[in-house]
Every structure is written in structure tokens, then in C-alpha cells.
Specification:
The chain is mainly α. It has 11 helices and no strands. Helix content is 75%, strand content 0%. Helix 3 (53-81) packs antiparallel against helix 5 and helix 8 runs antiparallel to helix 9 (251-268).
Length: 332
């Protein structure tokens, strides 16, 4: 005798097959799905409200529609099976797409959110279509078919809501907000790390080069200086502030970016000392330093609105002083 799926679905490893669900379980699962999706849309709205108010209103409207779907499903479930609804979630049934929680979409990217919404609506439509085909009860089949049709137009409805709520000026404002967040959360900490790694390691590396005249020793000292500076800057940035009040985003992401760019800044002019010939290695390292400082000046002009000549003067003069300090110390 075949086991009753209603009593064994939760014991099966890896979840139950959709084809094994009863009509009662399908309705219970549909209610759970609508609750989850409505909650996700509300979280999106809350997360976007400060910086993307128009998009937040759009997701609030979509969440309200999901709540309406849930109410209709519950009313039909109560009429057919009573008030006790079994807990069946998407992770209990094989084949569903995982819904990423809001804290995994960081730094917050509204385009990522909109792409996930498209996937959510597509999956919901497929679920209701398949569920309607399997149902033998006329009322259940009708509701599931209606919901499949509504999910099919839900994306288009969201686009119409978006076109109404999110005007050209709102799009421009959201674009500026994304640019500002990129600047605060990625560009600024990365630039700070690159400048620190490129400039602060000049003195120890070139002091070691002129003192030892040995490329291997210079490379090891430069490698240690770059990695040490990267670790130090990573922890300093990660512990500087939480980002809640300054809008600078996750401290750990900023720390990783700052530390990584600091290490890279020091490694760029360390790598030439892998060349065995000291004079060739020194010449290549000097050229790399000039390229590094010019690149930093360009980044400051591009993202920090600093005049190029002013940026060159600030970066190159500071780097040159540190470079000369290393040569003088190494030659003493």
C-alpha cells in the first residue's frame, strides 16, 4: 500500500516532490508562498524608503496585492478543510528558487532587487499553473488558475505602477543615490587604501633596495610591508564606524576593499624586484611608481571632482617626498 503523502511529506530527505502534494497541501503551500513574498516586498520597501522612496511605494503596492492573494487562499482553505493550516514552506518542496533575504543583497542594489522580483513572479505563475492542472476540485482549480493569470500580469502591472510612480526625475535621483553610495562604500575606501599602500610603502621598499642592493631581500621586505599595511588598514577601516549614520555601508566590506587596495598599492612596485638584475628591477619599479601616482591622481579627478593638476601635485609631491626619504635612508 502506498504511504499517504499527507503524513510522510515532512520526513523525506531533500523535501517532497510537487507531484506528491495533496490539494490541501497545495493550498497550504500557496498561503505560505504569498506570506513569504509579501514579507519580502515589504522588506524591500522598508530598505528602499530612505534613498528610493518611489520604488519603495511600488513595492508596498505589490506587497498589498500579495496579501490579497493570501486572503483569498485562506478563505477557500477554510471552506474546504477547516481552520487548521499545516506549515508547508518552499524549502520543504523540491524545485523552488531560493528567495535571497534583503541582507544578502548588499551593497543595496535596486536593479538586483528588480531582477529578483521578476524571478519571483515567474516562479509563482509556474506554480499556480501546475497546481491548477493537478487539482480536481472545481473551486480550487478556479482560484489557482485565476492566481496564475494574475501573476502573469503582475509583472506588467508592477511595470505600469513603476512608470507612474518612478518618473524621469526619480530615475535621475535614484541614479545619483547609487553613485553616491558607490562613492561612499567602495570608491573612497578603495582610494584611501590605494594611496596609503602606494605611498607609505615607498620608503621601506626603496630604503631596503639601496641598503641591500639585493632584489630578493627587497622583494621580501616589500611583500611584508604591503601585506602588513593591508591588514592594518582593513581593521582600521572596519572598526572606524558601523556605517549606519554616515551611509558608508557595511564596515566589513569597506575594510576588505581598503585592505585589499592597500596591499595592491604596495605590491605593484614590489613585484619588479622579482627581476634578478638590480638596476633593471629598480628602473621598472620607478616607472611603476610613476604610473601608480598618475593613476591615483586620475581617480581623484574622476570620482572626487579634484582638478587633475591639483590631484597630481598632491599625490606626486607627497609620493616623491616619501620616495626620496627611502633613498636617503637606504643610502646612509
Amino acid at each position: 500500500m502506498k504511504p499517504d503523502p499527507s503524513s510522510t511529506w515532512y520526513r523525506r530527505s531533500g523535501g517532497i516532490d510537487f507531484t506528491d502534494l495533496t490539494e490541501q497541501q497545495i493550498l497550504a503551500l500557496a498561503i505560505s508562498l504569498e506570506e513569504d513574498d509579501a514579507r519580502i516586498y515589504e522588506q524591500y520597501a522598508d530598505a528602499l524608503r530612505e534613498n528610493y522612496p518611489a520604488s519603495a511605494r511600488m513595492f508596498t503596492v505589490v506587497a498589498q496585492e500579495e496579501h490579497q492573494h493570501r486572503h483569498r487562499l485562506i478563505e477557500l482553505y477554510q471552506a474546504k478543510f477547516g481552520d487548521r493550516i499545516p506549515l508547508i514552506r518552499r524549502q520543504d518542496v523540491r524545485g523552488f528558487i531560493e528567495r535571497k533575504p534583503i541582507w544578502l543583497i548588499q551593497p543595496l542594489d535596486i536593479e538586483k532587487i528588480r531582477r529578483q522580483v521578476e524571478a519571483m513572479e515567474s516562479e509563482s505563475e509556474a506554480f499556480y499553473t501546475q497546481a491548477a492542472h493537478r487539482s480536481q476540485d472545481a473551486a480550487i482549480r478556479k482560484l489557482l488558475g485565476d492566481l496564475a493569470a494574475e501573476e502573469n500580469v503582475h509583472e506588467a502591472k508592477a511595470e505600469s505602477i513603476e512608470s507612474e510612480l518612478i518618473t524621469a526625475s526619480v530615475h535621475a535621483s535614484e541614479k545619483e543615490t547609487r553613485r553616491r553610495q558607490l562613492l561612499l562604500q567602495i570608491i573612497q575606501p578603495g582610494l584611501a587604501g590605494l594611496m596609503d599602500g602606494s605611498v607609505s610603502t615607498l620608503a621601506p621598499i626603496f630604503a631596503a633596495a639601496f641598503a641591500t642592493q639585493d632584489t630578493r631581500s627587497t622583494f621580501l621586505i616589500g611583500l611584508a610591508a604591503a601585506i602588513g599595511a593591508g591588514i592594518s588598514m582593513a581593521f582600521a577601516e572596519a572598526m572606524s564606524d558601523t556605517g549606519l549614520l554616515t551611509g558608508r555601508g557595511s564596515p566589513w566590506i569597506r575594510g576588505f576593499v581598503t585592505g585589499g587596495m592597500t596591499a595592491l598599492g604596495g605590491l605593484f612596485h614590489t613585484l619588479p624586484f622579482l627581476i634578478a638584475n638590480f638596476r633593471v628591477a629598480l628602473t621598472v619599479a620607478v616607472v611603476v611608481v610613476l604610473v601608480e601616482l598618475t593613476t591615483i591622481a586620475w581617480i581623484r579627478k574622476r570620482y572626487m571632482d579634484t582638478p587633475f593638476l591639483s590631484a597630481v601635485f598632491q599625490v606626486v609631491v607627497g609620493g616623491a617626498l616619501v620616495f626620496l626619504a627611502g633613498i636617503l635612508i637606504g643610502s646612509a
